[in-house]
Amino acid sequence: MQFVVHPLCIRILEIDILKTIDYLERYFEVEGQAANVQFMDKKFESWLNYQIRLNSFTNMLTIIAALLSCFAIYGLSISVVRDKMKQIAIRKICGADLIHIIYLLVREFAANLLISVLIFAPITYLIINELLRAFVYSTKIQWLDPVYPIAYCTLVIAVLCIWQALNLTKSDLSEALKK
Asked: Using an 8 Å Cβ cutoff, are 4 and 14 in contact?
C-alpha cells in the first residue's frame, strides 16, 4: 500500500513541543503506524534532538545523585550512631525499647535536615530560578518541587535509622559504656 504525503504546516508554541509531537503522531496515524512529524527548520529539529538527549543524560545524572545522597546519608547515620553510642547504650540498659532508640536517631537527623533546609533552600531557590530563566522553555519553580527531594531524604533517613536501631538492639553495648 502506498501512502500519500500531505504536508501540513502547524504553528505550535514552544511550551511543550514533545507532547505536541506525540499528539500529532497519534492523531494522524494510519493503520496503527504513527505519522512522521518533521520540522521545516532543520536547525530547530537538531536543537530539539539535542534537548532530548540532554534530558535523558540529566535523568541519568539524577539517578546517580540520588544514589550518592543515599551513601552520604548512610555515612552520616554511622557517624551519628557512633557519636550517640553511650546515650543509646544507657537507654537500652535502662529498658528503652526499639521505638525510643529510633526516635533518638531520627530526632538527630531531623534537626540536621531542618537546619540544612532553612539555610540552603533560599540560596538554592535563587540560583535555580536564575538558571531556569535562561532556558528557552521559561520554567517557574513550583512549591511542590522541593517537597519530593525532602520526602526522599526523610524516607532514606527513616529507613537507615530503623536499620541502625535494629543492628544496635542485636549488638552488645557494654563495650560502648567502657569507653
From this structure: no
